[in-house]
Amino acid sequence: MDALINQFSYGLFFWQLIVLLVIIFLLGKFAWKPIVNALEERESGIADALASAEKAKLEMARLTNENEQLLKEARVERDVILKEAKELKDKIVAEAKVAAQTEGAKLIEQAKREIEDQKTKALAEVKGQVSALSLAIARKVLTTEFEDQGKQEALVADLLKDVKLN
After folding, report:
1. 155 Cβ partners below 8 Å, 6+ apart?
2. pLDDT tens-digit readout, 143-163
3. Over pLDDT 90: what percentage of the chain?
4. Is residue 158 within 8 Å of 144, Cβ to Cβ?
5. How would you label 92-113 residue by residue, b for 16+ Cβ within 10 Å and e otherwise?
6. What is Dmax (Cα atoms) for the chain?
């Protein structure tokens, strides 16, 4: 083994050096550029993917904020609609109450007029009966008065017992 280590050949070294330089040149020209380009493309693709992910993250944040804003607006709109509906309901109820009170007042007034009309008719009928009764009494009194004063008084007293006025 010592013999192999001690034998150094300048010719073999020279040719090995030339082959190494040719291989380095060929690798540099044909292999390293595509490998470096592929690595640069991959680095660029990763950077683009990171930028796209950041854009997507920002877009998601924007959409989330927009959705929250829309949700807030929808809640506000819902509250406004509920408030308007309540006001409308209260207005309708109030109008119904007023209409019912007005109708009730009209019915009461109509009933009062009918009662007053019936009362007037009843009084007129009572007056008519009192007039007829008075005329009948007067007729009897006059006919009996011509005959006898004592009989007339007894007849008036008897007729007054039969008639009771309120």
Report:
1. 140, 141, 144
2. 756 667 777 677 777 877 877
3. 56
4. no
5. eeeeeeeeeeeeeeeeeeeeee
6. 199
What are the structure tokens assigned to 26, written together?
A: 């060929």
Give CA angle at 66 (65, 68), nearest 5°: 65
Q: Quick check: 151 and 144 in contact, CB under 8 A?
A: yes
- Chain segment 15-28, per-residue pLDDT in tens: 999 999 999 999 88
In the chain, what are the helix, strand and coil shares in percent, each to the nearest 5? 95, 0, 5
Token pair, residue 127, equals 């007056």
Model pTM score: 0.41
Structure tokens at 95: 């109008």
Which residue, 151, 126, 130, 125, is CA-closest to 140? 151
The DSSP code sequence of 124-155 is HHHHHHHHHHHHHHHHHHHHHHHH-HHHHHHH
Q: How far, in Å, CA of 166 to CA of 159, rounded?
A: 16
Torsion, Cα of 133, 136, 137, 138 (10° steps)? 120
